Amino acid sequence: MENQIDHAFSDAERAAVYRTIFNRRDVRGQFLPDPVPDEVLARVMLAAHHAPSVGFMQPWNFLVVRSPEVKQRVRDVFAKAHAEAALMFPEGKRETYSQLKLEGIVESPINLCITCDRERTGPVVVGRTHIKTMDLYSSVCAVQNLWLAARAEGLGVGWVSIFNQPELQAALGMPADIVPIAYLCIGYVSHFHEKPELEKAGWLPRLPIADLLYYDQWGQADAEQKESLTGALATMQDDIQQRGIFPK
Ligand SMILES: Cc1cc2c(cc1C)N(C[C@H](O)[C@H](O)[C@H](O)COP(=O)(O)O)c1[nH]c(=O)[nH]c(=O)c1N2
After folding, report:
1. Does ipTM come in above 0.90?
2. Fewer CB under 10 Å: which end of the chain, C or N?
């Protein structure tokens, strides 16, 4: 029988994959004006296009925004929603929320909207026959592929979602039946934060993964930590928190 370990990547390759995952950040504020070469943009977009999709539907489009006028229009749509959003938080958190930097639309050299065309391959799709939202999740997979590839290229990516959706669609000349899944700000950066900015700002901590784990039935946890999986996850998470990256 073939040894399954033969299919694993080398230690260095695995380390690179995990480093990309653990060091990816949502970037809002450190964008440099340096242009992003088309070959680099092409690589990360092709990575997105190789994402998994339900029924191989490939429901995405990529709308590249470089025009300062269009960016400004989108920034205005953000500003309106951001002001509305502030009022939704309880008083104690409202001021903190208002001070968070949550977009880099104008400063980043490239904006990219990744969309979902829900009718791309007709009404009946393999794998989407019962749970209709699977196409939306597929476009999210494309976003994540791009985000990780971009990190490996040294490019920052920030996902902006504080928009009234019809206003965003109008700003981009997008038909109402195309769903804007992710509006991304992309560019080289002065630095990457070690931890999520919301964690650094004290907004929320990273949850212990062992607390999120159930066995066999929803809600059934391993209270006494007898499962080696629970223990391994807890140890690894502590390690990552302390050393920053995994594996060394
Ligand atoms: C669907 C979705 C939507 C948004 C985000 C993410 C995702 C997945 N995030 C980024 C989010 O705040 C960030 O991922 C977490 O705080 C964790 O930080 P890192 O991504 O690990 O740096 C995000 N960030 C931001 O500044 N403005 C935004 O509107 C959004 N919207």
Report:
1. yes
2. N
